[in-house]
Structures are given as structure tokens and as C-alpha cells.
UniProtKB/TrEMBL annotation, chains A, B, C:
Family note: Belongs to the UPF0126 family.
Annotated keywords: Cell membrane, Membrane, Transmembrane, Transmembrane helix
Species annotation: Thalassobacter stenotrophicus DSM 16310
Domain Glycine transporter intervals: 16-90, 102-173
Predominant place of localization: membrane
Protein name stated in the entry: Uncharacterized membrane protein YeiH
Bilayer disposition of the protein: Multi-pass membrane protein
Subcellular location field: Cell membrane
Database matches in InterPro entries: Gly_transporter
Transmembrane segment boundaries: 6-33, 40-61, 73-93, 100-120, 126-147, 159-178, 184-206
């Protein structure tokens, strides 16, 4: 490996975060596969793409070697297991679209923190940490939606998504600044901000002003 | 190059396999371009994307340097030649969609074996060899279909595609276990399984049970 | 960094070219975001994807470390600034689609040259320089259009796009051959060819013969 770690504790934390986001993203991928009526192997394929897509782009761009799921293929096993479980249980879910949206919000909250900490673990500056947080969070779901031909959640008009990821990534930096010795403040702050903004957007319609071709004349 | 090869023979075999899958995938890309009525340069672009897409992602994720077509740009030349030939001959083909489906099955059979052997050549464990086989096989065609706005073959409801790739990749492992000194048993077993399952799926409707929102009550 | 530069001057030029293509591509991304009525953070996301997508794939495939915008995060800042400016000014533009098409042609002209020079800076052969020019130019816009569900400009039937990029890349090689000491001849020739062919295609319908399923019988 072409780099060494600054702290060992966060590395373990990072592994746990990657697992958590892998599993929850895998569930969202499997649910989208159920909407496309694929077979169980198709569930596994979409689940893996969603689960490891964002983190893979992050690791390739950062030149972290090996990519996280090559270092630990149990990530893939976890995603596949999640896909199989969903294949047999998705019909218990009342609204699969709703489940996708909410679980995606959970996975996003965790993945953004994982991205920030991964960039920090290879000593990238703060701006890159924020960008990697947003990328890790958003790209897996984006691949899932593009491949399955759903309207990408990330670009759904008038919802906070990239904004939530961005706020969470900045929150993670603030958490690391407040409590430099431990990553947990960063993770908690990031998850609370990301999930809070997503939830507010889904439930109460929180949004930023969207672009209008013709703003109302005063 | 950050690694050395365990065996030299399979490396040559690997080069040949990459060529074979490059050319056949390029033909499918050019046929899809003909359905979109592109010009000859557009044929070349889609052919190259399809031909080297899966192997490029494989090499980037495995950190194999240089990527196979940088090491040997003749791969690109072969893909371009195939595109030009198809540009002038595609109207001889009675059903271009049928030709895409069958040639894609051939290319898939070869590319899966190439992916498994490439992962093995850099000493990855068996699970990663299987995943790289599936990725190398499936991603080029997936890029072709997403970019050209066709329904991705890889996710077509009720067909064996990822399943065929997965079975072939496992078959390749079995072949390497049965005959560790030569890659040809692995290649033959992989191609037979992948192509056999795809063909059975296309001709006879072989499939795994797909997900149904409401399974029949007994 | 695993390589050293052959000439120092072009490296600076390369940085400038990357900036120029980043900013103009970011503007096209923001204009496409305005067509999708996203909020300001969505503008930034699409702008960044478009602006750095092609160059990122180029650097990852060439194994140039770090990727250009990791080496200089101001690229991202420039793309975000462009997105914010467009968010507040896009309604001044009479036809945003027309603006996208023309600015995309400008960005393409610059990005192709940047790709050729980047491949040359790591001592790749001429064929790879041409391919990297085409890739750097075409992939950012392709990602923008796939993610935002627009018909990809790059594959629009009966327009010169990849052809323009290809001609420009070959022109850049010719420029470097004519005037090996300075990159400016290459950049000028590349931009003139790429932009000229795109403009001719948009204004006067210049095109290559497209594939026809049934060519007229004589």
C-alpha cells in the first residue's frame, strides 16, 4: 500500500462505516431490482453496484490501493446476502419506493462520513475531504438509478439530496475539528445533518429555491 | 508494473482472450450504432466503448498498470476495424437485434474467462476472480446500452445474463482447479457454461424465478 | 508522482487548458441543470461532473497521480463558481439549449487539446495521445447528458462530434510535429479544427454519411 495511516482507530471505524453503508445501499439496490422484476442474481448485481459504486470511484480517484472491497471481499458477501434476503422479503414491504427513499437516506448519511474519513486517512486537504464525502454518498445511488432507468434520486427536482450530503460532509469536518481525537463526533454530526435534511425534505418539503426560467416580475 | 506474473503462458492467453472479446464486443457496439443510425466515427466510438469498457474498469480497480489497451493499442485498432467493417456490411444482416444478442453472448463467454484469468494473474483470491470475471463480461455491454439508450441486455427481465457470467466464472475456477498447469480447461468450461446458459435462455426461455410483488397464495 | 515531465512549459499550459475546459464545461453542465430545474447545489453537482468527468477518466486510465483536480482543487472551485453564476443569470440567455451546444463546442475544442498534451506529458505514443484527446473531450459531456437524461450530444444522429474531436486530436499531433518546442501551434490547430467542424455541423449541417439500413439501390 502506497500510504500509511495517520491514526489506526479511525481506520477500523472506516471499515465499519463502509460495511454499514454497503449493506443499506445494497438493500436499496435490491428494492430497485424488485421494482424491475429481476431474478435473484440480478438483485445481487444491482445491490453490489449500488453498494460499492461510490466507494470504488472514491478509492480509484484517491489512488487508495487496494480498493476497499478488494481489501475485504466480505463487503461483497454482505451486499449479496442483503440482496438475497430482500429477494425473499420485499413483498412484505408496503411501499418499496418509500423504503428505497428512506433507506437511501440512511445509507447516504453513513457513506458521506465514510468518504470524508477515507480522504482524511490519506491526508487530503479539507476541500477534497468534503468532495469525497459527497461523491461516496451520491455516486452509488446515481449508478443504481441510471442503470435501472429510474429518475435519479440525486437529481430529483426540488429535493435536498446533494445539499444534504454537502451539509453532512461539512458537519463531519466540524466534528473532527471539535473532537480531533475520535471520529465519532464527526460521524454523528454528519449523519444527523445529512439524514435530518433528507428527512425534512421528504416529509416537509424543505428545499432550496430551484431555478426558474422566468422568475416572477415584481 | 507493480506486480509480476505467476505464469507466462496464461499471460499470452490472456492477451488473446482480450483480443477476442474486444473484437466481438466491438461488433455488437457497431451493430447497436447502426440501430441508432450513427456515422462511421460514431460506430467506432460505441465499438471502442463496448470493447474496452469492461476490461478497463477491471484493470483500474485491480490497479493493473498499464490498462490492457494502453499496453497494446492494437486492441483499439482491432475495435475500430471491426466498426468500419460493420458500417459497410450491417445491412447484410437480416436482424441486427438478433445479431447483437448472439454476438454479445459470444463476447460475454470470452470476456468472463479473461476477467478471471486477469484477476488470477495478479494473485487475487478466488472470490475476487469470480467478481472480476462477471465485471469484465457485463460492464462493456452495460455501458453500450446505457449510452445508446437501449434496454440493458444485462438487466433484461427474465433472462439469464449475470447468472450465465457467474456460472462461467465459477466454471473457470473449477477448470483451473482440475487442470492447474494450463488455462485452456478453464477457458473451455467458462465459455461452455456462459454461452450454454445464454443460449438456453434466448432459445428456450430458461430462467430463474423472477421477483413477483405478490407471489401466488396457496 | 510516478513520472517526471519532459517539458515544464507545456505542463503550465496543460494546467491552463484544464482550467479553460473545466470552466466552459461547467457552464454547459449548469445550463443543462437549469433545463432540469435543479437548485443551486444541483447546478454545482452537474457542473462538476461535466467539468472534471473526462479529465478524471483520462488521468485514472493513464495512472497520472494525483488526478488533476486533486492536485489543484481550485478546478472544483472554478466549476462551482461558474455554476453559481449561471444559476443567477441563465434566464438572460435566450435559448439555453443553443448556448449548451455552442459552449460545449468551445469546451470540446480545449479539452481535446488538453487530453492530447496530458498523454504526451506521460510519454504515451501518438495513437494513445489521440484517444486520450477524444476521451477527455467527449466523456464529460456524455456523463452530463446520461445523468440528466438528455439525448447525448456526442451521439446525436447526423452531427459531427466525435469526428470533430478526432480531427482536432490529429491536428494537435500535426501541430506538435510542426512546432515541437511549443504547444501553442498544437492547441491552435486542434481548437480550430474541432470548433470549425462542430460549427460547420451545427450551422450548415456538415456531416458524414450515416448508416442506412437499406442503401438506395442503383
Amino acid at each position: 500500500m502506497p500510504f500509511f495511516f495517520v491514526w489506526m482507530v479511525p481506520m477500523t471505524t472506516l471499515v465499519l462505516l463502509d460495511y454499514a453503508s454497503v449493506i443499506v445501499f445494497a438493500v436499496t439496490g435490491a428494492l430497485v431490482a424488485s421494482r424491475a422484476q429481476l431474478d435473484v442474481v440480478g438483485f445481487g448485481f444491482v445491490a453490489c453496484l449500488t453498494a460499492v459504486g461510490g466507494g470504488t470511484v472514491r478509492d480509484v480517484v484517491l489512488d487508495r490501493n487496494p480498493v476497499f472491497w478488494l481489501a475485504d471481499p466480505l463487503n461483497i458477501a454482505a451486499a449479496l446476502l442483503a440482496a438475497v434476503v430482500i429477494f425473499f422479503t420485499a413483498h412484505w414491504v408496503e411501499s418499496r419506493l418509500k423504503a428505497v427513499i428512506w433507506l437511501d437516506a440512511v445509507a447516504l448519511s453513513v457513506a458521506v462520513a465514510a468518504g470524508v474519513l477515507a480522504a482524511r486517512s490519506v491526508d487530503q486537504p479539507a476541500a477534497i475531504q468534503v468532495i469525497m464525502g459527497v461523491m461516496t454518498g451520491c455516486l452509488g445511488g446515481l449508478m443504481r438509478d441510471v442503470v435501472c432507468n429510474e429518475v435519479p434520486l440525486v437529481l430529483k427536482q426540488g429535493e435536498l439530496y446533494v445539499t444534504a450530503a454537502l451539509a453532512g460532509a461539512v458537519g463531519a469536518l466540524a466534528g473532527l475539528w471539535l473532537s480531533p481525537g475520535s471520529p465519532w463526533a464527526a460521524i454523528a454530526l454528519c449523519a444527523a445533518l445529512t439524514f435530518g435534511l433528507r428527512a425534512g425534505s421528504i416529509l416537509f418539503g424543505w428545499r432550496l429555491p430551484v431555478y426558474r426560467a422566468r422568475p416572477p416580475q415584481t
